[in-house]
Amino acid sequence: MSGPGPSIPPLRPELAVICDLIKPDSRILDLGCGDGALLLHLARSRSVRGYGLEIDAANVAACIGAGVNVIQADLDEGLADFADGSFDYVVMTQALQALVRPDLAVEEMLRVGREAIVTFPNFGHWRARLAILNGRMPITPALPAQWYNTENIHLCTVADFEDLCRRSGWEVLDRVLLDRAHRRGPAISLLPHLFCEIALYKLRKPVAGATAGLV
Question: Is the pLDDT assigned to residue 139 strictly greater than 50?
Answer without folding.
Answer: yes
